[in-house]
Amino acid sequence: MLTARRALAALAAAALAAGPTAAAPPARADRVRDAMTPVLESLNVPRAWSLARGRGVTVAVLDSGVDPEQADLAGSVAPGPDYTRGANPAGVAPKRLHGTNMASIIAGHGHGPDGGDGVLGVAPEARVLAPRVILERDEPGFTAFTGNERYEGTIAAGIRYAVDHGADVVNLSLGRSYPTRREREAVAYAIARGAVVVAAAGNGGADRRARRGGHTEYSYPASFPGVISVAAVDAEGRHAGFSNRNSAVVVSAPGVRIIGAGPDGRYWIGDGTSPATAFVSGIAALIRSRHPKMAPALVTQAIVAGTGERPARGYDLGVGFGRVDALAALAESDRLASARTQGLGLPADQRFGTGPVRPVEVVHRSGGLITAYAVCCLLAAVGAAAGTAYLWRRRYGPD
Protein backbone atom coordinates (compact mmCIF):
# COMPACT_ATOMS: atom_id res chain seq x y z
CA MET A 1 0.00 0.00 0.00
CA LEU A 2 1.20 3.52 -0.70
CA THR A 3 2.36 5.61 2.22
CA ALA A 4 0.28 8.61 3.23
CA ARG A 5 2.87 10.88 1.60
CA ARG A 6 2.70 9.11 -1.76
CA ALA A 7 -1.05 8.66 -1.59
CA LEU A 8 -1.82 12.30 -0.99
CA ALA A 9 0.69 13.39 -3.58
CA ALA A 10 -1.01 11.14 -6.12
CA LEU A 11 -4.37 12.56 -5.13
CA ALA A 12 -3.37 16.18 -5.61
CA ALA A 13 -1.45 15.43 -8.80
CA ALA A 14 -4.43 13.68 -10.34
CA ALA A 15 -6.67 16.59 -9.49
CA LEU A 16 -4.41 19.30 -10.80
CA ALA A 17 -2.04 17.89 -13.40
CA ALA A 18 -4.39 18.56 -16.30
CA GLY A 19 -6.40 21.38 -14.79
CA PRO A 20 -6.21 25.08 -15.69
CA THR A 21 -2.88 25.46 -17.44
CA ALA A 22 -2.71 28.92 -18.95
CA ALA A 23 -4.26 32.29 -18.39
CA ALA A 24 -6.59 33.35 -21.18
CA PRO A 25 -5.50 36.40 -23.17
CA PRO A 26 -6.25 39.68 -21.36
CA ALA A 27 -9.43 40.24 -23.33
CA ARG A 28 -12.88 41.49 -22.51
CA ALA A 29 -15.02 39.06 -20.54
CA ASP A 30 -17.53 38.80 -23.37
CA ARG A 31 -14.79 37.09 -25.40
CA VAL A 32 -14.82 34.46 -22.68
CA ARG A 33 -18.55 34.02 -23.25
CA ASP A 34 -17.96 33.72 -26.99
CA ALA A 35 -15.40 30.97 -26.39
CA MET A 36 -17.61 29.04 -23.96
CA THR A 37 -20.88 29.20 -25.92
CA PRO A 38 -19.97 26.61 -28.60
CA VAL A 39 -19.05 24.11 -25.90
CA LEU A 40 -22.40 24.57 -24.16
CA GLU A 41 -24.23 24.35 -27.47
CA SER A 42 -22.51 21.06 -28.28
CA LEU A 43 -24.12 19.68 -25.11
CA ASN A 44 -27.53 21.24 -25.85
CA VAL A 45 -27.30 23.24 -22.63
CA PRO A 46 -28.91 26.49 -23.90
CA ARG A 47 -31.93 24.54 -25.15
CA ALA A 48 -32.17 22.72 -21.81
CA TRP A 49 -32.48 26.06 -20.00
CA SER A 50 -36.09 26.29 -21.18
CA LEU A 51 -36.77 23.38 -18.80
CA ALA A 52 -34.40 24.02 -15.88
CA ARG A 53 -31.53 26.30 -14.86
CA GLY A 54 -30.55 24.75 -11.54
CA ARG A 55 -32.77 26.75 -9.21
CA GLY A 56 -33.08 25.23 -5.74
CA VAL A 57 -30.10 22.88 -6.17
CA THR A 58 -26.85 22.88 -4.20
CA VAL A 59 -23.74 21.47 -5.85
CA ALA A 60 -20.83 20.68 -3.56
CA VAL A 61 -17.51 21.41 -5.26
CA LEU A 62 -14.93 19.51 -3.22
CA ASP A 63 -11.70 20.99 -4.41
CA SER A 64 -9.00 23.56 -3.61
CA GLY A 65 -11.62 26.10 -2.58
CA VAL A 66 -13.84 28.52 -4.49
CA ASP A 67 -13.46 32.29 -4.56
CA PRO A 68 -16.88 33.65 -3.48
CA GLU A 69 -15.98 37.10 -4.80
CA GLN A 70 -15.36 36.00 -8.38
CA ALA A 71 -17.79 38.09 -10.42
CA ASP A 72 -19.29 35.12 -12.27
CA LEU A 73 -20.03 33.34 -8.98
CA ALA A 74 -20.75 36.23 -6.61
CA GLY A 75 -23.74 35.51 -4.37
CA SER A 76 -23.84 31.81 -5.25
CA VAL A 77 -21.04 30.38 -3.10
CA ALA A 78 -20.98 29.12 0.48
CA PRO A 79 -17.30 28.40 1.23
CA GLY A 80 -17.61 25.55 3.74
CA PRO A 81 -14.82 24.40 6.08
CA ASP A 82 -11.14 24.27 5.13
CA TYR A 83 -9.93 20.73 5.84
CA THR A 84 -6.41 21.69 4.73
CA ARG A 85 -6.02 24.30 7.46
CA GLY A 86 -2.50 24.35 8.85
CA ALA A 87 -0.76 22.99 5.76
CA ASN A 88 0.04 26.42 4.33
CA PRO A 89 2.27 28.74 6.40
CA ALA A 90 0.45 31.23 8.60
CA GLY A 91 -0.83 34.23 6.69
CA VAL A 92 -0.79 32.54 3.26
CA ALA A 93 -4.15 32.79 1.54
CA PRO A 94 -5.41 29.73 -0.38
CA LYS A 95 -5.00 29.95 -4.14
CA ARG A 96 -8.43 28.41 -5.02
CA LEU A 97 -7.82 28.40 -8.79
CA HIS A 98 -8.83 24.84 -9.65
CA GLY A 99 -11.95 24.90 -7.47
CA THR A 100 -13.11 28.29 -8.75
CA ASN A 101 -12.60 27.09 -12.31
CA MET A 102 -14.76 24.00 -11.74
CA ALA A 103 -17.47 25.94 -9.90
CA SER A 104 -17.77 28.43 -12.76
CA ILE A 105 -18.31 25.64 -15.30
CA ILE A 106 -21.04 24.20 -13.10
CA ALA A 107 -22.84 27.31 -11.86
CA GLY A 108 -21.30 30.46 -13.32
CA HIS A 109 -23.95 33.15 -13.89
CA GLY A 110 -21.81 35.69 -15.70
CA HIS A 111 -21.61 39.36 -14.80
CA GLY A 112 -22.03 42.80 -16.28
CA PRO A 113 -25.16 44.18 -17.99
CA ASP A 114 -27.78 41.42 -18.08
CA GLY A 115 -25.06 38.94 -17.06
CA GLY A 116 -23.72 39.07 -20.59
CA ASP A 117 -20.02 38.83 -19.75
CA GLY A 118 -17.87 36.06 -18.33
CA VAL A 119 -18.61 32.39 -17.77
CA LEU A 120 -22.16 31.10 -17.92
CA GLY A 121 -22.16 27.61 -16.43
CA VAL A 122 -24.41 24.65 -17.12
CA ALA A 123 -26.69 25.36 -14.14
CA PRO A 124 -26.41 29.14 -13.62
CA GLU A 125 -29.07 29.30 -10.92
CA ALA A 126 -27.56 26.55 -8.76
CA ARG A 127 -25.74 27.31 -5.54
CA VAL A 128 -22.23 26.09 -4.74
CA LEU A 129 -21.03 24.64 -1.45
CA ALA A 130 -17.24 24.61 -1.42
CA PRO A 131 -15.35 22.76 1.33
CA ARG A 132 -11.61 22.99 0.72
CA VAL A 133 -10.16 19.47 0.68
CA ILE A 134 -6.94 19.69 -1.38
CA LEU A 135 -4.11 22.13 -2.02
CA GLU A 136 -2.84 23.11 -5.43
CA ARG A 137 0.62 22.00 -6.48
CA ASP A 138 2.16 25.48 -6.38
CA GLU A 139 0.86 26.40 -2.92
CA PRO A 140 3.67 26.63 -0.36
CA GLY A 141 2.01 24.07 1.91
CA PHE A 142 1.64 21.42 -0.79
CA THR A 143 4.53 19.30 0.50
CA ALA A 144 3.30 19.52 4.08
CA PHE A 145 -0.19 18.58 2.96
CA THR A 146 0.92 15.53 0.97
CA GLY A 147 3.28 14.30 3.67
CA ASN A 148 1.01 14.47 6.71
CA GLU A 149 -1.39 11.69 7.66
CA ARG A 150 -3.51 14.32 9.36
CA TYR A 151 -4.89 15.26 5.93
CA GLU A 152 -5.50 11.76 4.62
CA GLY A 153 -9.25 11.86 5.21
CA THR A 154 -10.05 15.30 3.83
CA ILE A 155 -12.06 14.03 0.84
CA ALA A 156 -14.21 11.73 2.95
CA ALA A 157 -14.81 14.44 5.53
CA GLY A 158 -15.76 16.90 2.80
CA ILE A 159 -18.26 14.49 1.26
CA ARG A 160 -20.00 13.89 4.55
CA TYR A 161 -20.07 17.59 5.37
CA ALA A 162 -21.56 18.39 1.97
CA VAL A 163 -24.31 15.80 2.28
CA ASP A 164 -25.16 16.86 5.83
CA HIS A 165 -25.49 20.45 4.60
CA GLY A 166 -27.92 19.81 1.80
CA ALA A 167 -25.80 18.99 -1.26
CA ASP A 168 -27.89 17.52 -4.08
CA VAL A 169 -24.85 16.88 -6.30
CA VAL A 170 -21.24 16.27 -5.24
CA ASN A 171 -18.55 17.21 -7.79
CA LEU A 172 -15.17 15.52 -7.37
CA SER A 173 -12.80 16.79 -10.03
CA LEU A 174 -9.98 14.88 -8.36
CA GLY A 175 -8.87 11.33 -7.74
CA ARG A 176 -6.24 8.87 -6.57
CA SER A 177 -5.01 5.57 -7.96
CA TYR A 178 -6.31 3.32 -5.19
CA PRO A 179 -9.41 3.19 -2.98
CA THR A 180 -9.63 4.01 0.70
CA ARG A 181 -12.24 2.68 3.04
CA ARG A 182 -13.13 6.11 4.41
CA GLU A 183 -13.87 7.49 0.94
CA ARG A 184 -15.83 4.41 -0.10
CA GLU A 185 -18.00 4.70 3.00
CA ALA A 186 -18.43 8.44 2.49
CA VAL A 187 -19.57 7.90 -1.10
CA ALA A 188 -22.04 5.25 0.06
CA TYR A 189 -23.26 7.67 2.74
CA ALA A 190 -23.85 10.35 0.11
CA ILE A 191 -25.72 8.12 -2.33
CA ALA A 192 -27.85 6.59 0.41
CA ARG A 193 -28.99 10.11 1.33
CA GLY A 194 -29.91 11.06 -2.19
CA ALA A 195 -26.82 12.92 -3.42
CA VAL A 196 -25.61 12.38 -6.97
CA VAL A 197 -21.85 11.82 -6.93
CA VAL A 198 -19.82 12.72 -10.04
CA ALA A 199 -16.05 12.21 -10.27
CA ALA A 200 -13.18 12.49 -12.73
CA ALA A 201 -12.05 9.29 -14.46
CA GLY A 202 -8.45 10.53 -14.32
CA ASN A 203 -5.75 11.86 -16.61
CA GLY A 204 -3.42 8.86 -16.95
CA GLY A 205 -4.46 7.76 -20.42
CA ALA A 206 -1.26 8.95 -22.05
CA ASP A 207 1.01 6.85 -19.82
CA ARG A 208 3.15 4.31 -21.66
CA ARG A 209 1.59 1.33 -19.91
CA ALA A 210 -1.91 2.66 -20.57
CA ARG A 211 -1.18 3.11 -24.27
CA ARG A 212 0.32 -0.37 -24.52
CA GLY A 213 -2.44 -2.18 -22.64
CA GLY A 214 -5.42 -0.07 -23.72
CA HIS A 215 -6.75 -0.01 -20.16
CA THR A 216 -5.61 2.42 -17.48
CA GLU A 217 -5.64 1.89 -13.76
CA TYR A 218 -8.84 2.74 -11.97
CA SER A 219 -9.19 6.11 -10.28
CA TYR A 220 -11.03 6.71 -7.03
CA PRO A 221 -13.55 7.93 -5.95
CA ALA A 222 -14.67 7.72 -9.63
CA SER A 223 -14.59 3.90 -9.67
CA PHE A 224 -16.68 3.33 -6.56
CA PRO A 225 -20.15 1.83 -7.21
CA GLY A 226 -22.83 4.43 -7.83
CA VAL A 227 -20.44 7.20 -8.88
CA ILE A 228 -20.72 8.74 -12.36
CA SER A 229 -17.16 8.42 -13.67
CA VAL A 230 -16.49 11.00 -16.38
CA ALA A 231 -13.96 10.81 -19.21
CA ALA A 232 -12.90 13.68 -21.46
CA VAL A 233 -13.45 14.20 -25.19
CA ASP A 234 -12.31 16.91 -27.57
CA ALA A 235 -14.49 19.37 -29.48
CA GLU A 236 -15.33 16.69 -32.07
CA GLY A 237 -16.40 14.19 -29.43
CA ARG A 238 -13.28 12.03 -29.79
CA HIS A 239 -11.59 10.49 -26.77
CA ALA A 240 -8.93 12.83 -25.38
CA GLY A 241 -5.60 11.02 -25.28
CA PHE A 242 -4.87 11.93 -21.65
CA SER A 243 -8.23 10.64 -20.39
CA ASN A 244 -8.27 7.28 -18.59
CA ARG A 245 -9.67 4.25 -20.37
CA ASN A 246 -11.27 1.67 -18.09
CA SER A 247 -14.54 -0.10 -17.47
CA ALA A 248 -15.55 2.30 -14.68
CA VAL A 249 -16.09 5.14 -17.18
CA VAL A 250 -19.80 5.94 -17.47
CA VAL A 251 -20.04 8.98 -19.77
CA SER A 252 -17.83 11.64 -21.32
CA ALA A 253 -17.87 15.42 -21.72
CA PRO A 254 -15.65 18.13 -23.22
CA GLY A 255 -12.25 18.39 -21.55
CA VAL A 256 -9.91 19.99 -24.08
CA ARG A 257 -9.14 23.72 -24.00
CA ILE A 258 -12.00 24.54 -21.66
CA ILE A 259 -12.17 28.09 -20.33
CA GLY A 260 -13.28 28.88 -16.81
CA ALA A 261 -13.14 31.62 -14.22
CA GLY A 262 -10.39 32.03 -11.66
CA PRO A 263 -9.72 34.32 -8.69
CA ASP A 264 -8.86 37.96 -9.20
CA GLY A 265 -11.09 38.33 -12.25
CA ARG A 266 -8.86 36.22 -14.49
CA TYR A 267 -9.89 33.42 -16.83
CA TRP A 268 -7.99 30.21 -17.43
CA ILE A 269 -7.86 27.59 -20.17
CA GLY A 270 -7.16 23.96 -19.34
CA ASP A 271 -7.48 20.32 -20.32
CA GLY A 272 -8.55 17.36 -18.20
CA THR A 273 -11.26 15.12 -16.89
CA SER A 274 -11.77 17.79 -14.19
CA PRO A 275 -13.75 20.20 -16.42
CA ALA A 276 -15.50 17.24 -18.08
CA THR A 277 -16.72 16.22 -14.63
CA ALA A 278 -17.97 19.74 -13.95
CA PHE A 279 -20.12 19.68 -17.11
CA VAL A 280 -21.77 16.43 -16.00
CA SER A 281 -22.35 17.75 -12.48
CA GLY A 282 -24.08 20.75 -14.03
CA ILE A 283 -26.40 18.49 -16.00
CA ALA A 284 -27.15 16.47 -12.85
CA ALA A 285 -28.05 19.78 -11.17
CA LEU A 286 -30.50 20.59 -13.98
CA ILE A 287 -32.19 17.22 -13.49
CA ARG A 288 -32.42 17.60 -9.72
CA SER A 289 -33.80 21.10 -10.17
CA ARG A 290 -36.60 19.72 -12.33
CA HIS A 291 -37.09 16.54 -10.28
CA PRO A 292 -35.85 17.28 -6.74
CA LYS A 293 -36.64 13.84 -5.31
CA MET A 294 -35.25 11.76 -8.16
CA ALA A 295 -32.97 9.01 -6.86
CA PRO A 296 -29.29 9.16 -7.79
CA ALA A 297 -29.54 5.93 -9.79
CA LEU A 298 -32.35 7.40 -11.91
CA VAL A 299 -30.41 10.63 -12.45
CA THR A 300 -27.52 8.50 -13.71
CA GLN A 301 -29.90 6.52 -15.93
CA ALA A 302 -31.31 9.72 -17.43
CA ILE A 303 -27.82 11.05 -18.17
CA VAL A 304 -26.72 7.76 -19.73
CA ALA A 305 -29.90 7.30 -21.79
CA GLY A 306 -29.59 10.86 -23.09
CA THR A 307 -26.02 10.58 -24.39
CA GLY A 308 -25.09 11.40 -27.97
CA GLU A 309 -22.02 10.51 -30.05
CA ARG A 310 -22.41 6.96 -28.79
CA PRO A 311 -19.78 4.33 -29.54
CA ALA A 312 -20.55 1.93 -32.35
CA ARG A 313 -20.99 -0.99 -29.96
CA GLY A 314 -22.90 1.02 -27.38
CA TYR A 315 -20.07 1.29 -24.87
CA ASP A 316 -16.38 2.11 -25.01
CA LEU A 317 -13.73 2.17 -22.29
CA GLY A 318 -12.65 5.64 -23.37
CA VAL A 319 -15.97 7.50 -23.64
CA GLY A 320 -18.37 5.26 -21.75
CA PHE A 321 -21.91 5.32 -23.12
CA GLY A 322 -21.20 8.52 -25.05
CA ARG A 323 -21.00 12.28 -24.71
CA VAL A 324 -23.60 13.85 -22.43
CA ASP A 325 -26.52 15.90 -23.78
CA ALA A 326 -28.34 18.17 -21.33
CA LEU A 327 -31.63 18.45 -23.23
CA ALA A 328 -31.88 14.72 -23.89
CA ALA A 329 -31.00 13.93 -20.27
CA LEU A 330 -33.82 16.18 -19.05
CA ALA A 331 -36.24 14.52 -21.47
CA GLU A 332 -35.21 11.11 -20.15
CA SER A 333 -35.62 12.32 -16.57
CA ASP A 334 -39.16 13.44 -17.41
CA ARG A 335 -39.91 9.99 -18.81
CA LEU A 336 -38.52 8.27 -15.74
CA ALA A 337 -40.38 10.60 -13.37
CA SER A 338 -43.70 9.95 -15.11
CA ALA A 339 -43.31 6.18 -15.25
CA ARG A 340 -46.32 4.45 -13.73
CA THR A 341 -45.41 2.30 -10.74
CA GLN A 342 -48.84 1.73 -9.18
CA GLY A 343 -50.40 -1.56 -10.16
CA LEU A 344 -47.08 -3.17 -11.05
CA GLY A 345 -46.15 -6.37 -9.30
CA LEU A 346 -48.25 -8.47 -6.93
CA PRO A 347 -49.87 -7.38 -3.69
CA ALA A 348 -47.91 -8.23 -0.57
CA ASP A 349 -50.36 -11.00 0.41
CA GLN A 350 -50.40 -12.73 -2.99
CA ARG A 351 -47.94 -15.40 -4.12
CA PHE A 352 -47.86 -16.34 -7.81
CA GLY A 353 -51.58 -16.93 -8.09
CA THR A 354 -54.99 -16.06 -6.80
CA GLY A 355 -55.43 -18.94 -4.39
CA PRO A 356 -54.81 -18.83 -0.64
CA VAL A 357 -51.32 -19.06 0.71
CA ARG A 358 -50.89 -22.52 2.23
CA PRO A 359 -48.25 -23.50 4.76
CA VAL A 360 -45.54 -25.87 3.62
CA GLU A 361 -45.67 -29.27 5.31
CA VAL A 362 -42.33 -30.20 6.84
CA VAL A 363 -41.69 -33.97 7.06
CA HIS A 364 -39.24 -35.04 9.75
CA ARG A 365 -37.23 -38.17 8.86
CA SER A 366 -36.00 -40.61 11.47
CA GLY A 367 -32.31 -41.08 12.11
CA GLY A 368 -32.46 -44.64 10.72
CA LEU A 369 -33.86 -43.50 7.37
CA ILE A 370 -31.28 -40.78 7.07
CA THR A 371 -28.48 -43.28 7.76
CA ALA A 372 -29.83 -45.75 5.19
CA TYR A 373 -30.06 -42.96 2.61
CA ALA A 374 -26.47 -41.96 3.27
CA VAL A 375 -25.26 -45.57 2.89
CA CYS A 376 -27.10 -45.89 -0.45
CA CYS A 377 -25.48 -42.69 -1.72
CA LEU A 378 -22.02 -43.97 -0.66
CA LEU A 379 -22.53 -47.34 -2.40
CA ALA A 380 -23.69 -45.56 -5.55
CA ALA A 381 -20.59 -43.39 -5.53
CA VAL A 382 -18.29 -46.43 -5.04
CA GLY A 383 -20.03 -48.23 -7.88
CA ALA A 384 -19.68 -45.28 -10.20
CA ALA A 385 -15.97 -45.01 -9.40
CA ALA A 386 -15.41 -48.72 -10.01
CA GLY A 387 -17.24 -48.55 -13.33
CA THR A 388 -15.18 -45.58 -14.43
CA ALA A 389 -11.93 -47.37 -13.52
CA TYR A 390 -12.97 -50.47 -15.51
CA LEU A 391 -13.80 -48.45 -18.61
CA TRP A 392 -10.49 -46.54 -18.31
CA ARG A 393 -8.51 -49.81 -18.21
CA ARG A 394 -10.41 -51.12 -21.23
CA ARG A 395 -9.72 -47.94 -23.18
CA TYR A 396 -6.22 -46.94 -22.08
CA GLY A 397 -4.80 -50.06 -20.42
CA PRO A 398 -2.17 -52.38 -22.01
CA ASP A 399 -3.32 -54.30 -25.14
Automatic annotation (TrEMBL):
<dbReference type="InterPro" id="IPR006311">
    <property type="entry name" value="TAT_signal"/>
</dbReference>
<keyword id="KW-0472">Membrane</keyword>
<feature type="active site" description="Charge relay system">
    <location>
        <position position="98"/>
    </location>
</feature>
<keyword id="KW-0645">Protease</keyword>
<feature type="domain" description="Peptidase S8/S53">
    <location>
        <begin position="54"/>
        <end position="321"/>
    </location>
</feature>
<dbReference type="InterPro" id="IPR050131">
    <property type="entry name" value="Peptidase_S8_subtilisin-like"/>
</dbReference>
<keyword id="KW-0812">Transmembrane</keyword>
<feature type="active site" description="Charge relay system">
    <location>
        <position position="274"/>
    </location>
</feature>
<feature type="transmembrane region" description="Helical">
    <location>
        <begin position="370"/>
        <end position="392"/>
    </location>
</feature>
<keyword id="KW-1133">Transmembrane helix</keyword>
<dbReference type="InterPro" id="IPR036852">
    <property type="entry name" value="Peptidase_S8/S53_dom_sf"/>
</dbReference>
<keyword id="KW-0378">Hydrolase</keyword>
<feature type="active site" description="Charge relay system">
    <location>
        <position position="63"/>
    </location>
</feature>
<comment type="similarity">
    <text>Belongs to the peptidase S8 family.</text>
</comment>
<keyword id="KW-0720">Serine protease</keyword>
<feature type="signal peptide">
    <location>
        <begin position="1"/>
        <end position="23"/>
    </location>
</feature>
<dbReference type="Pfam" id="PF00082">
    <property type="entry name" value="Peptidase_S8"/>
</dbReference>
<dbReference type="InterPro" id="IPR000209">
    <property type="entry name" value="Peptidase_S8/S53_dom"/>
</dbReference>
<protein>
    <submittedName>
        <fullName>S8 family serine peptidase</fullName>
    </submittedName>
</protein>
<keyword id="KW-0732">Signal</keyword>
<dbReference type="InterPro" id="IPR015500">
    <property type="entry name" value="Peptidase_S8_subtilisin-rel"/>
</dbReference>
